[in-house]
């Protein structure tokens, strides 16, 4: 026998809140309520204000989106372990291959971000929002990123944090057998092949046209033909070397010198 339709009212809301220890953030006693009415309440776990429609609130849960995600994680992990032997989809080669094959079948590329249409759309969006084609060129965004990194990692760049660097290195060693993906023979050959197809040489600097273009760009951006002639760039390069290898110059590091 079908259940009678729910009569949405303040009495129903008040009764539900009393039974489930839910605190309302607004007074709805004088309002005409419907199933679609947005109800503001305090999450029963984190006590932050949240909004859900009346129907969803009484039928599903009294948690905010963030707490729902946290609560569901153990169940999601257990399901993933049971089905694929890993806790997260990104850890399963089967799932990754399925995603990549889906992209190839649909777009002809391994990742939609490689599509020129997507690249152009991204540039257009960045121009509209930030006035630049790439978000990293926007001073406000850069400052925000630096502020976030300082708060989270104690450094302007997350890679200056030893723990983060070690995590990246360990991930690369696990995935590719090298500390940096660019050290992998396959990637080296792939880069060489790409450069050869584009410029007819193995390295871009062997191409005269590329060299002239680089000099022109450097003169426009840094005021010198070679970026390392710029004091600011030189200092940044030194800081990067110190951060990664503990020395200001690659020749001061025996491991890099041997390479």
Determine the number of helices (DSSP H or I, runs of at least 4 residues).
11
Overall helicity: 55-70%
Strand fraction equals under 5%
- SSE string, helix = H, strand = E? HEEEHHHHHHHHHH
User: How many strands?
Assistant: 3
Shape: elongated
Strand order, main sheet: write it out: 1-2-3
Derived structural class = mainly alpha
Main sheet, how many strands, which sense, barrel? 3 strands, antiparallel
Low-confidence runs of at least 5 consecutive residues? none
Radius of gyration: 28 Å
Instruction: Quote the distance from N terminus to C terminus.
Output: 78 Å
Pfam families: DUF7487
Protein name: DUF7487 domain-containing protein
InterPro entries: DUF7487 (IPR055910)
Domain DUF7487: 75-196
What would you say this structure looks like, in words?
- InterPro entries: DUF7487.
- It comes from viral metagenome.
- This is DUF7487 domain-containing protein.
- With 259 residues, the protein is mainly alpha-helical.
- Among the domains are: 10-63, no CATH class; 76-113, no CATH class; 211-259, no CATH class.
- It contains eleven helices and three strands; from the N terminus they run αβββαααααααααα.
- The chain has helices spanning 10-20, 54-59, 65-84, 93-107, 116-130, 139-153, 162-176, 185-199, 208-222, 231-245, 254-258; strands spanning 23-24, 38-42, 49-53.
- A three-stranded antiparallel sheet has the order 1-2-3.
- A hairpin with a 6-residue loop joins strand 2 (38-42) and strand 3.
- The radius of gyration is 28 Å and the shape is elongated.
- The chain starts with 9 loop residues before the first helix and ends with a helix.
């Amino acid at each position: 026998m079908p259940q009678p339709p729910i009569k949405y009212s303040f009495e129903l809301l008040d009764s539900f809140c009393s039974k489930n220890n839910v605190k309302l953030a607004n007074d709805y006693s004088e309002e005409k309520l419907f199933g679609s009415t947005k109800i503001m309440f305090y999450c029963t776990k984190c006590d932050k204000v949240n909004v859900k429609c009346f129907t969803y609130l009484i039928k599903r849960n009294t948690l905010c989106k963030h707490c729902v995600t946290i609560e569901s994680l153990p169940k999601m992990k257990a399901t993933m372990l049971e089905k694929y032997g890993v806790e997260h989809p990104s850890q399963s080669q089967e799932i990754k291959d399925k995603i990549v094959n889906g992209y190839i079948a649909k777009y002809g590329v391994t990742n939609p971000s490689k599509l020129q249409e997507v690249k152009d759309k991204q540039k257009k969006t960045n121009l509209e929002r930030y006035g630049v084609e790439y978000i990293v060129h926007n001073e406000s965004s850069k400052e925000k990123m630096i502020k976030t990194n300082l708060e989270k990692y104690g450094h302007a760049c997350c890679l200056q944090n030893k723990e983060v660097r070690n995590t990246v290195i360990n991930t690369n060693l696990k995935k590719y057998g090298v500390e940096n993906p660019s050290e992998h023979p396959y990637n080296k050959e792939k880069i060489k092949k790409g450069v050869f197809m584009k410029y007819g040489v193995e390295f871009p600097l062997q191409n005269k046209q590329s060299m002239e273009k680089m000099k022109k760009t450097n003169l426009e951006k840094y005021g010198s033909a070679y970026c390392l002639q710029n004091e600011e760039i030189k200092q940044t390069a030194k800081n990067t070397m110190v951060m990664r290898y503990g020395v200001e110059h690659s020749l001061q590091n025996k491991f890099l010198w041997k390479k």
